[in-house]
Design goal:
Largest sheet: 8 strands, mixed
InterPro entries: CRISP-LCCL_domain, LCCL, LCCL_sf
Keywords: Signal
Number of strands: 12
Radius of gyration: 18 Å
Helix content: under 10%
Strand content: 15-25%
Order of helices and strands: EEHEEEEHEEEEEE
Oligomer: single chain
CATH topology: Ferric Hydroxamate Uptake Protein, Chain A, domain 1
Pfam family, one: LCCL
Number of helices: 2
Structural class: mainly beta
Organism: Branchiostoma floridae (Florida lancelet)
Shape: globular
Strand order of the largest sheet: 2-1-3-4-7-12-6-5
Protein name: LCCL domain-containing protein
Number of domains: 1
CATH superfamily: LCCL-like domain
């Protein structure tokens, strides 16, 4: 079992009047059909905001200090998040509440199973569940927040947003041993302020 790699999120919001960052790196790629992870390192993120460029974090420290001095903006917006692929399960996340980057295009990975609707079984694909719940755009991918919940006895199936989830009934006499749980997915909320 492969666990996602921990990375740090640095979000640069102030873009008006400043040239775009000149040091660039490749954005984490879309999910590959073989299920391989999109690469693990620290990135300035998200790249889809106007004027923000994906840059390796080690190249950003000087730029962040310069920006803070120029704008009197002293608080960096830093969040830890996990990088997942379309086959990463909810049970693979190390914390009860975890911010997760999911790649684009996970709805097409039908071999990555999903059980439930709203609340998903821990063995479900986390990123496909995020698309199913409507909290992650399939075409763009992005950040979501996953929260673990206690194991449920019933996970209803449905088809939403191009992802089919299956019905799963857990026999109460045969509760699986180990750290098997449910999870819910919500949109990642950017926090701004001093």
């Amino acid at each position: 079992m492969m666990f996602p790699t921990k990375v740090t999120l640095i979000l640069i919001i102030i873009t008006v009047g400043f040239p775009p960052l000149s040091v660039q790196s490749d954005r984490p790629t879309d999910a590959r059909p073989d299920g391989a992870s999109p690469g693990a390192m620290r990135y300035v993120f998200p790249a889809w905001l106007p004027g923000v460029t994906v840059t390796p974090a080690e190249d950003v420290q000087f730029l962040m200090e310069s920006l803070a001095r120029a704008t009197n903006f002293r608080k960096n917006l830093v969040t830890d998040f996990e990088v997942a692929d379309c086959y990463t399960k909810g049970d693979d996340m190390p914390e009860y509440t975890t911010n997760v980057y999911c790649p684009a295009g996970c709805a097409a990975h039908r071999k990555a199973s999903v059980w439930g609707a709203g609340t998903y079984n821990g063995a479900s694909s986390l990123c496909r569940a995020a698309v199913h719940s409507g909290n992650l755009p399939n075409a763009a991918g992005g950040l979501v927040t996953m929260e673990k919940r206690p194991l449920a006895m019933l996970y209803p199936g449905s088809t939403k947003n191009g992802v089919k989830s299956s019905l799963l009934v857990i026999n109460s006499k045969r509760i699986p041993k180990g750290d098997v749980k449910s999870f819910v997915v919500s949109r990642y909320r950017y926090e701004f302020g001093k």
